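Before the break, one more example. Copy the sequence into your notebook; we will annotate it together after we see the structure.
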Amino acid sequence: MVPRILVVDDEPNIREVICFALERAGMATATAGTGTQAMATFRAGKIDLIILDIGMPDMDGLDVCRQ
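Here is what the structure looks like once it is written out:
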């Protein structure tokens, strides 16, 4: 089973670079650009790991972790 990693960052270029590297390593990725989107994606499907930006505009990464 391939691990599924959620990459959360408000910068699209950063998400793309991280996903590119993870996918080349054989991982499956999902992305979110906000903390709110991250929570929805996490609740909607099986996520094995989250790579999370701390400084996001709507809900920072620490708030996402707490939830």
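The radius of gyration is 11 Å. The beta strands are 4-8, 28-32, 49-52. Try to locate both features in your own notes.
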